[in-house]
């Protein structure tokens, strides 16, 4: 079968960028900080809290399984076999193309290459042909060089670059600060509306799209003044290599035409615009400039800026803002160098991040050593981001903290509710827990490179956000269960970090419970919550203690299992005998089976946990039975024995041997699954020797997915009206039947996606392979 890399095109963007979470600095009680430090250290050989690693992205090596030497320095071969070859900076610069024209005044850069070749293979692939047919039906034709789509595609055909210069971290942080403030006040406004209701007309009017932001600015005037003083357009440089001289000249002319038309038609009405030119890095740029001082003076002729700003801040602050805005210039320029066309947007022409000579190149720095082992590969993309930008866009960014603070703010001065004292304590604790949990994160300079080989698209990612939630150092002991699975995710978690997470969840539920109590004690509880509050009273009086016992029993389960687990999804299960489901589906339909395999640490703890859970659940069912006036007996668990593995499950009318939620275990492994049959097979596989890999291993296979979808298409063909009762959905299926079948069949070109994220010599590494046949 012809190899295709259409799947590689779909994956390139995702493989180039690592996942970034949202951290904040620690500022909590000493015991929580100690627990956070314990969690962070338990995750692996990480720097101590507060330390900032600014080391360059270390020398990259392909994924390896042999033991690694710790703390290898940049330039050393980490396999310990021999020293790394001397760095050939000229070869690096030549292979990285446009990227080598950048100066070291860059915060982040992303490049794509080989776009034309990739598109050619897309056109020859089965799935690509389906995609082209859909484009043709919508009158989009990339084969016509004069079409808008083809002109845009030309920018990506050979080499494309997007870079942001120095100053970007500060401006990104400014935007996030503004967003955080708005989220907090938006939540506070919604909280007041929620508790007071829509009867307050003035409050309701303030709830417009900018109402909360207006309030935030009025109550924090210095924030806005300081924000404007430090704000400016960060340097943004876009470049495209176009070897065809006619196409290149056309693109360059279009860029110049846009600036020229703006200057020509806006000469009288927009005196703040003028033409400008500059030579940077040996390239002549020209375009237009917006003079901030002239712009503000022009606006002042049309409106009283002092009066407009005076609605939010005092006269002195308003004047400071006006003076700051006068200093904000903007330039939009373009230029051509060799086969490359450049477009620049920024505050000053001198900020264009282009190198004046080889020594000033970004690619000449040690931070680009990650790319050296892959210079002989068929490169597709390269990503690089300095640590300052990563921290500016993630560090200090709360997950729920803005909303929690907004709730606290919304409760202030609210006289209609019950006493929110305990609720405020829980909300404060939630914020401290979040800060201490996220303080366990570590930050590293980020880079990635993707490249093509005969077996598909490969990507290597270095650095990024290192989470303490996972165990990065203990080798996996559970055996592989991925042979016939659709999806498997194998990892170990950090038990100390889990304590923080559990405390956070418990405090969140406590806050919700207390919020319900505050509403319930209100002078006039909101009418829309009346039914909810009646249920709260019942829960509080009759179910709270048993619910807490159930939760504690579940937590006890965690003490009985180890820290390693595998989540598995397979697509070969059978359907339960659900009433009303067409007979064809029950007899022939395939269903997903979901399982979680864990190592067993203390089987006695698991037994103790079950006794506590069963007792609490029985009491809860008895309470509910009394409430609804019906007898709902607690079902007695049944068990079966297979090759030393004991399976427990609750019988119910719709079950089959394949579909019945169950727990299968012995002294080594425990499997929670929707399928009793699948659980036994997975338990046997997991008891085999583990891979010894560390970190997080993910594998997704396409053959099981294709078989699953093809089976369902054949099933629908037998009884389309019975299986798809909705008329609109049935019509859509019938109209697009051939296209759907073609997409499913095209999956035969793909093999699997594998990803392995681990810690190597203190550096976060992810190896990804999008494999084709």
What does the model show?
- It contains 27 helices and 20 strands.
- The model is unreliable at 1-32, 42-56 and 58-84 (pLDDT under 50).
- 44% of the residues lie in helices and 21% in strands.
- With 773 residues, the protein is an alpha+beta fold.
- It has a 20-stranded antiparallel β-sheet, with helices on both faces.
- The radius of gyration is 31 Å and the shape is globular.
Estimated share of beta-strand residues:
15-25%
3D shape? globular
Helix content range: 40-55%
Structural class: alpha+beta
Q: What distance lies between the first and last C-alpha atoms, to the nearest angstrom? A: 7 Å
**Average pLDDT over all residues:** 82
**Major sheet:** 20 strands, antiparallel
Please tally the helical runs, counting DSSP H or I stretches of 4 or more residues: 27
Could you name the ranges where pLDDT drops below 50 across 5 or more consecutive residues?
Answer: 1-32, 42-56, 58-84
Structure described in brief:
A hairpin with a 2-residue loop joins strand 19 and strand 20 (763-772). This protein has 27 helices and 20 strands.
What is the secondary structure topology, with strand pairs?
Elements: H1 6-16, H2 30-42, H3 89-96, E1 106-113, H4 115-124, H5 126-137, H6 148-154, E2 159-165, H7 168-196, H8 201-206, H9 211-219, H10 221-230, E3 236-241, H11 245-265, E4 273-280, E5 283-290, H12 292-302, H13 305-309, H14 315-326, E6 330-337, E7 340-346, E8 378-385, H15 387-394, H16 401-411, H17 421-438, E9 442-453, E10 456-466, E11 487-492, H18 495-520, H19 530-542, H20 544-560, E12 561-574, H21 583-588, E13 590-600, H22 603-628, E14 638-642, E15 645-649, E16 662-665, E17 669-673, H23 676-686, E18 696-701, H24 702-718, H25 720-723, H26 727-735, H27 737-746, E19 750-760, E20 763-772
Antiparallel strand pairs: 1-2, 1-8, 2-3, 3-7, 4-5, 5-6, 6-7, 8-9, 9-10, 10-20, 11-12, 11-18, 12-13, 13-17, 14-15, 15-16, 16-17, 18-19, 19-20
Helix pairs in contact: 2-17, 2-18, 4-5, 7-9, 7-15, 7-16, 9-10, 10-14, 12-14, 16-17, 17-18, 20-22
């Amino acid at each position: 079968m012809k190899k295709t890399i259409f799947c590689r095109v779909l994956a390139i963007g995702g493989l180039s960028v690592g996942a970034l979470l949202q951290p904040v600095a620690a500022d909590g009680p000493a015991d929580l900080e100690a627990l956070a430090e314990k969690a962070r250290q338990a995750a692996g050989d990480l720097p101590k809290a507060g330390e900032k690693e600014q080391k360059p992205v270390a020398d990259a090596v392909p994924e390896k399984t042999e033991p690694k030497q710790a703390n290898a320095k940049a330039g050393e071969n980490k396999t310990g076999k021999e020293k790394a070859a001397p760095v050939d900076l000229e070869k690096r610069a030549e292979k990285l193309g446009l990227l080598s024209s950048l100066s070291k005044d860059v915060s982040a850069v992303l490049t794509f290459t080989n776009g034309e070749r990739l598109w050619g293979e897309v056109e020859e692939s089965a799935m690509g042909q389906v995609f082209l047919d859909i484009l043709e039906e919508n009158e989009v034709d990339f084969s016509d060089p004069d079409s808008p789509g083809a002109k845009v595609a030309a920018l990506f055909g050979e080499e494309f670059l997007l870079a942001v210069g120095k100053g970007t971290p500060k401006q990104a942080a400014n935007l996030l600060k503004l967003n955080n403030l708005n989220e907090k006040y938006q939540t506070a406004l919604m909280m007041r509306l929620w508790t007071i209701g829509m009867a307050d007309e003035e409050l309701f009017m303030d709830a417009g799209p900018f109402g909360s932001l207006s309030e935030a600015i009025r109550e924090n005037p210095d924030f806005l003044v300081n924000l404007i003083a430090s704000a400016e357009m960060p340097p943004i440089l876009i470049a495209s290599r176009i070897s065809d001289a006619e196409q290149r000249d056309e693109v360059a002319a279009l860029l110049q035409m846009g600036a020229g038309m703006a200057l020509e038609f806006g000469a009288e009405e927009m005196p703040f615009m003028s033409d400008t030119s500059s030579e940077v890095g040996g390239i002549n740029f020209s375009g237009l400039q917006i003079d901030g001082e002239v712009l503000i003076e022009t606006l002042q002729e049309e409106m009283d800026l002092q009066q407009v700003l005076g609605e939010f801040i005092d006269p002195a602050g308003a004047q400071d803002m006006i003076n700051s805005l006068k200093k904000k210039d903007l330039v939009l320029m373009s230029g051509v160098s060799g086969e490359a066309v450049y477009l620049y947007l920024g505050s000053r022409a001198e900020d264009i991040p282009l190198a004046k000579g080889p020594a000033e190149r970004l690619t000449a720095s040690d931070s680009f050593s990650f790319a050296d082992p892959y210079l002989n590969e068929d490169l597709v993309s390269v990503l690089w981001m300095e640590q300052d930008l990563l921290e500016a866009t993630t560090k200090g960014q709360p997950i729920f903290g803005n909303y929690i603070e907004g709730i606290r703010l919304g409760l202030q001065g609210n006289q209609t509710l019950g006493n929110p004292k305990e609720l405020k304590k829980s909300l404060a604790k939630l914020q401290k827990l979040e800060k201490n949990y996220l303080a366990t994160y570590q930050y590293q300079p980020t880079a990635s490179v993707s490249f093509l080989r005969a077996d598909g698209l490969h990507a290597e990612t270095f650095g990024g956000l290192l989470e303490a939630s996972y165990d990065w150092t203990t080798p996996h002991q559970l055996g592989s269960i991925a042979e016939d699975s659709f999806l498997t995710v194998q990892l170990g978690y950090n038990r100390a970090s889990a304590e923080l997470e559990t405390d956070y969840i418990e405090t969140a539920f406590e806050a919700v419970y207390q919020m319900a109590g505050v509403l319930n004690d209100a002078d006039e509880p909101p009418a829309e919550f009346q039914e909810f509050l009646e249920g709260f009273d019942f829960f509080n009086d009759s179910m709270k203690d048993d619910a807490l016992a159930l939760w504690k029993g579940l937590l006890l389960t965690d003490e009985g299992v180890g820290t390693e687990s595998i989540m598995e999804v397979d697509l070969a299960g059978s359907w339960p005998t659900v009433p009303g489901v067409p007979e064809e589906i029950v007899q022939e339909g395939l269903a997903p089976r979901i399982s979680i395999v864990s190592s067993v640490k203390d089987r006695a703890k698991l037994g103790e946990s079950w006794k506590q859970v069963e007792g609490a659940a029985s009491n809860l069912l008895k309470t509910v039975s009394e409430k609804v006036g019906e007898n709902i007996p607690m079902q007695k668990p049944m068990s079966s024995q297979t090759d030393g593995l004991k399976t427990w499950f609750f019988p119910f009318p719709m079950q089959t041997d394949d579909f019945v939620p169950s727990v299968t275990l012995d002294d080594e492994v425990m499997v929670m699954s929707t399928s009793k049959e699948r659980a036994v097979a997975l338990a046997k596989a997991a008891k085999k020797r583990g891979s010894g890999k560390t970190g997080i291993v993910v594998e997704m296979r396409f053959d099981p997915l294709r078989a699953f979808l093809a089976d369902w298409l054949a099933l629908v063909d037998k009884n389309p009206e019975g299986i798809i009762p909705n008329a609109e959905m049935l019509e859509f299926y019938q109209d697009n039947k051939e296209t759907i079948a073609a997409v499913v069949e095209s999956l035969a070109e793909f093999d699997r996606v594998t990803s392995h994220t681990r810690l190597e010599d203190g550096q976060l590494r992810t190896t990804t392979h999008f494999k084709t046949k």
